[in-house]
């Protein structure tokens, strides 16, 4: 047996020559790095290399020294043969990775702590956002209800005034219900109903669904809104939940129409594009010629309750992002201030690896 000084330092003593306990590895106590169970000496990497005549490399093991200290090692054993191929022995190389494994464990604990803190922060932000968003319609409900009571008590209430107040109560109640509905959609993890879909047909269906809103937007801004659909001819089929992806498209198109309802916008054009993105996915883009958004804002767009619109709830984009991510894709935004805004998202091709037959 031959060994160097570093081996003595790792073992905690010089190995005893011809001692059965030291024959293979310099330690009589070995443990599996996977579950901590004892590792029989005849199953250690050195014994296997000698017995089978093949190399055993990069085996993580726990090595117990005579003083009881345990080290995590990366073990390697390879047979030594003479020129005629006769097995003469084996070389045993150990690398101490204890510090590395401790650092990795600390990183895992740190990541878990940060993730927990992030979840708590997110929950706090959502709770604050819910309180803020619901406070407005609920306050309005109370005010209009009190106005109705005062009008009735005065004995001078006109039917028109009461109807107007009650209509406002109904409107604010509907707004509160819509906030709750959108929050449930954001938090719900409903299973996807995936289908293999023709992407051309899927996008055309969403465009047809939004046609009335495009016409309405043109009437509001008193200028024609040009709608362009530019789809690559040879798009692959995609495997998606068609209802949910149409919901994403409709939401992004609606955002674009609202963004172009701005007196600073001279030319109003809404473009839908789709093109293959590598072998496994397709990128769909919704682009408008609205005013865009300020630098740095795109990082906040997908946070719940963040909005750049006075009457917005700040839930449409987070819901869309959660739908796209559930499909294995991503949603992001790009903009050129004063020129255009683009929202892009990816969906998987029907033949993408990793997609099974259903969800």
Automatic annotation (TrEMBL):
Alphabetical UniProt keywords: ATP-binding, Kinase, Nucleotide-binding, Phosphoprotein, Transferase, Two-component regulatory system
Keyword ATP-binding part of the UniProt annotation: yes
Stretches assigned to the Histidine kinase domain: 129-351
Cell inner membrane in keyword set: no
Alphabetized InterPro entries for the sequence: HATPase_C_sf, HATPase_dom, His_kinase_dom, HisK_dim/P_dom, HisK_dim/P_sf, PAC, PAS, PAS-assoc_C
Lineage per the UniProt record: Bacteria, Pseudomonadati, Pseudomonadota, Gammaproteobacteria, Chromatiales
Annotated ranges, domain PAC: 57-109
Organism: Nitrococcus mobilis Nb-231
GO molecular function: ATP binding; phosphorelay sensor kinase activity
Catalytic activity: ATP + protein L-histidine = ADP + protein N-phospho-L-histidine
Entry's EC annotation: 2.7.13.3
Official protein name in the record: histidine kinase
Pfam families documented for this protein: HATPase_c, HisKA
Recorded superkingdom: Bacteria
């Amino acid at each position: 047996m031959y060994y160097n000084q570093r081996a003595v330092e790792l073992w905690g003593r010089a190995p005893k020559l011809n001692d059965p306990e030291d024959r293979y590895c310099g330690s009589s106590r070995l443990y599996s790095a996977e579950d901590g169970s004892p590792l029989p000496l005849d199953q250690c990497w050195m014994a296997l290399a000698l017995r089978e005549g093949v190399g055993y490399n990069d085996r993580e093991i726990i090595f117990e020294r005579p003083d009881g200290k345990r080290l995590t090692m990366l073990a390697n054993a390879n047979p030594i043969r003479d020129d005629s191929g006769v097995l003469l022995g084996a070389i045993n190389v150990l690398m101490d990775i204890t510090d590395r494994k401790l650092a990795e464990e600390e990183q895992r604990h740190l990541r878990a702590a940060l993730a927990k803190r992030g979840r708590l922060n997110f929950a706090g932000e959502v709770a604050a956002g819910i309180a803020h968003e619901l406070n407005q319609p609920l306050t309005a409900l109370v005010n209009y209800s009190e106005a109705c009571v005062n009008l009735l008590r005065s004995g001078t209430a006109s039917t028109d005034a009461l109807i107007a107040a009650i209509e406002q109560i109904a409107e604010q109640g509907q707004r509160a219900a819509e906030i709750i509905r959108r929050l449930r959609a954001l938090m719900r993890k409903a299973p996807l109903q995936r289908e293999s879909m023709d992407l051309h047909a899927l996008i055309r269906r969403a465009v047809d669904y939004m046609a009335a809103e495009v016409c309405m937007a043109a009437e509001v801004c008193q200028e024609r809104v040009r709608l362009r659909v530019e789809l690559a001819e040879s798009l692959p089929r995609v495997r998606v939940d068609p209802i949910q992806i149409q919901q994403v498209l409709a939401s992004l198109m609606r955002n674009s129409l609202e963004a172009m309802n701005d007196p600073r916008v001279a030319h109003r054009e809404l473009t839908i594009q789709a093109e293959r993105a590598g072998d496994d996915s397709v990128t769909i883009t919704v682009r408008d010629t609205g005013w865009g958004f300020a630098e740095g804002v795109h990082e906040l767009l997908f946070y719940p309750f963040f909005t750049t619109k006075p009457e917005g709830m700040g839930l449409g984009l987070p819901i869309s992002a959660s739908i796209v991510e559930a499909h294995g894709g991503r949603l992001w935004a790009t903009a050129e201030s004063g020129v255009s805004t683009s929202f892009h998202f990816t969906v998987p091709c029907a033949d993408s690896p990793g997609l099974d037959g259903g969800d």
